[in-house]
């Protein structure tokens, strides 16, 4: 979990974890002024161990996430998952994904569906990206087909996939990462809503939306080949440079778009 000045959201997220298995948490603080309350978090979290890492200054979520990957690899975890402060896991979310990976050895990374809520907890819309690998490979050119804080993957895929690209450390680093993952491995989404994802006006997706869409265009070009989805995705994202996050959220609510 990359943390930046959101101790309340961090606490809410940790409290939501309810699993049959232990889930260890690594909190990487990205140079916050308002640090995590370690004593408080250790008191309220009893589903595993909590580890804390602190960056001396704000480096961007991509750098914080990469530090988390480094520590997780050094601790020899078989699985790594991402989680964002403020998002809420439903009961047995991680257990269901890990069981699926155990039963489908060819799949190396799996996300889930989610309910999207606003910062006050009000329901906005469902997020149900495709589940099967072939469709994901095509539609990744439109937008990320994985909700970053929902994803769990085998740590060993990092040997080929590598870390989150440094050049996208401020926005869309997860999109670039998932593109690399699906080039090397079979990836899927679990067909069940297993978390609440907060659409926050202070999130990167909102405050740095133009940078996020611009980086998405760069990532599409990094992976471009002539075909319907790459061409359509490129033009679609160019148009999104001129559309606000509020407008796209309303369209998703009305037309159930991913």
Automatic annotation (TrEMBL):
Pfam families according to UniProt: Glycos_transf_2
Domain Glycosyltransferase 2-like residues, every copy: 2-154
Transmembrane segments: 226-244
Keywords attached to this entry: Glycosyltransferase, Membrane, Transferase, Transmembrane, Transmembrane helix
Family: Belongs to the glycosyltransferase 2 family.
Official protein name in the record: Glycosyltransferase
Organism, as annotated: Winogradskyella damuponensis
């Amino acid at each position: 979990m990359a943390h930046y000045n959101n101790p309340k959201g961090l606490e809410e997220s940790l409290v939501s974890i309810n699993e049959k298995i232990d889930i260890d948490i690594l909190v990487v603080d990205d140079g916050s002024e308002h640090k995590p309350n370690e004593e408080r978090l250790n008191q309220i979290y009893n589903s595993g161990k909590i580890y804390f890492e602190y960056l001396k200054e704000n480096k961007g979520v991509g750098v914080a996430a990469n530090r988390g990957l480094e520590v997780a690899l050094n601790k020899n975890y078989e699985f790594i998952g991402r989680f964002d402060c403020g998002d809420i896991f439903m009961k047995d979310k991680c257990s269901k994904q890990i069981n699926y990976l155990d039963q489908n050895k060819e799949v190396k990374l799996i996300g889930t569906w989610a309910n999207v809520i606003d910062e006050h907890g009000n329901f906005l819309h469902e997020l149900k990206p495709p589940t099967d690998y072939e469709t994901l490979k095509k539609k990744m050119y439109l937008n990320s087909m994985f909700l970053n804080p929902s994803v769990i993957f085998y740590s060993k895929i990092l040997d080929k996939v590598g870390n989150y690209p440094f050049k996208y450390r401020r926005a869309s680093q997860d999109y670039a990462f998932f593109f690399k993952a699906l080039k090397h491995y079979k990836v899927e989404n679990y067909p069940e809503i297993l978390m609440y994802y907060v659409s926050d006006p202070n999130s990167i997706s909102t405050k740095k939306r133009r940078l996020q869409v611009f980086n998405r265009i760069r990532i599409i070009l990094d992976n471009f080949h002539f075909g319907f989805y790459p061409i359509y995705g490129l033009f679609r994202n160019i148009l999104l440079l001129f559309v606000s996050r509020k407008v796209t959220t309303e369209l998703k609510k009305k037309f159930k778009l991913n």
